[in-house]
Amino acid sequence: MSRPAVVPDSATRRLVLVCGDQSGTESWVLRQLSTRQLTAGLWLAESAPVGIRPTPAARVGQSLGAEFPLLVYNAHQGFHPDAFAAAVGTLRGGGDCVVLAPALRDWSGFTDPDKARFACYPRDPAELHGFFLQRLVRIWGAHPAVSVVEPDSDLELRLAAPSPTGFQLNDEQRAAVAAIERVAHGHARRPLVLTADRGRGKSTVLGVAAASLLAGGLKRVTVIAPGRAAVGTLFRHALAAAGRSGEAVADTSIGGGILCFRLPADCMRWEPDGLGLVMVDEAAAIPVAVLNRLLAASNRLVFASTVHGYEGSGRGFELRFRSVLQQTMPQWRELRLSAPARWAEGDPLETLVNETFLLDAELAAVQRDDAVVIEAIEPSRLVLDEALLRSAFGLLINAHYQTRPSDLRQLLDNPDVQLWLARLGDTVLGVLLASDEGGFDPGM
């Protein structure tokens, strides 16, 4: 009989790193929890023990927006940085993130199946470096958020408490809903820029505000995003706030109005009834030219963007779009959501994920007037110089929205990637990241 899980009073989360062979680490989890308890969580792997439905890393996006009391990640079958970082965001406060992995001493030399994604012809995945896992082992092996155990450990796993029923917005979220309602009903041409780190309930706020406005008589709310998957959570919360179930991203009647979804390309076409209140979700992923078109087409807009997250950074959006907004609609307002919605403030697991994947890396201020030095940097040097790695990757994150955790692995592990840095003293001013291509047989 398995021991019952301990439900903690705290809303903090931890990472439990179970080291050993795949069979032994899986058996340790199965001894702790019943199949019913495990199926309530998210088991991220290509395969799982009998009775448990696995979610492959490539399909983790289908689980985003959901919440789980437990997360199990089988790293024996490949450690996909993007999938892991995304999955951690689904874990409720008080639950454990369990990673099944080889022994710490062996993990960095492990032939990780995930490496195959980065090996370009004719290179074999075994030729790739192991610096990414070497760094991960160094960080996780000494981090206070990590409990390293072996299959004979008596550590008890923890399940998060059930989610409270109904909407329970925190003070920040209620203030954000009110700010969106002011955009819809107040003076025109005063857009709102809503920013948040992942896990702050940004999509919940947008969905609740849309439902409230439509139920109150607004005729139309148009949601614009890079893809339908990006707004599934928004639509689900909008429908739930209206007392309905479902999450289909399609034109949906709520109250006397309609909640619409449009792709950025659709914004270039004329809408006969106008766009109504426009909510631009993940605005950092949309070209500034399209955002400019929206400024010309609508007087009531909300721009929402993730600042730090596994899917990239919104800081580039802020830098590029802020000046345009200031010139076009200078009475715009900014609001930042900072309180976590699913876990406690200062959650150690969130801190660990940010540190591991450099999600919170920022641009350094230039304070010295030394000569600029340009040099090639080998990954073997980068993995041992955390400050230099953070500076270089932080510039990549802030300059390009789609920088992801997998790009960090590619930078450290792929021998075909070359990195050049321009530095002023200890400050990284520029990054050139290039990938060698070619090497095809003449007959191909």
Description:
The protein has helices at residues 22-32, 35-39, 81-88, 104-107, 131-140, 171-185, 202-215, 232-241, 288-297, 315-328, 348-357, 379-382, 386-399, 405-413; strands at 14-19, 42-44, 71-74, 96-101, 146-149, 192-196, 220-224, 252-254, 257-262, 277-280, 301-306, 333-337, 372-377, 417-424, 427-435. Helix content is 31%, strand content 18%. Mean pLDDT is 88; it is low at 1-9. α9 (288-297) runs parallel beside α10 (315-328). The relative contact order is 0.13. The protein is an alpha/beta fold.
Note the main attributes of this structure.
single chain, 444 residues, alpha/beta, 7-stranded mixed beta sheet, 5-stranded parallel beta sheet, 31% helix, globular
List the helices and strands and how they pair.
Layout: E1 14-19, H1 22-32, H2 35-39, E2 42-44, E3 71-74, H3 81-88, E4 96-101, H4 104-107, H5 131-140, E5 146-149, H6 171-185, E6 192-196, H7 202-215, E7 220-224, H8 232-241, E8 252-254, E9 257-262, E10 277-280, H9 288-297, E11 301-306, H10 315-328, E12 333-337, H11 348-357, E13 372-377, H12 379-382, H13 386-399, H14 405-413, E14 417-424, E15 427-435
Parallel strand pairs: 1-4, 1-5, 2-3, 3-4, 6-11, 6-12, 7-9, 7-10, 10-11
Antiparallel strand pairs: 8-9, 13-14, 14-15
- Over all CA atoms, what is the radius of gyration? 23 Å
Q: Give the SSE order as H and E letters.
A: EHHEEHEHHEHEHEHEEEHEHEHEHHHEE
Low-confidence residue ranges: 1-9
Number of helices: 14
Q: Using DSSP, what is the number of strands?
A: 15
- SS-derived structural category: alpha/beta
Task: Report the principal-axis shape.
Answer: globular
How would a crystallographer describe the biggest sheet? 7 strands, mixed
- What is the CA–CA distance across the termini? 59 Å
- The neighbouring-strand order within the major sheet is 8-9-7-10-11-6-12
> Percent range for helical residues?
25-40%
Mean pLDDT: 88
- Strand share of the residues? 15-25%
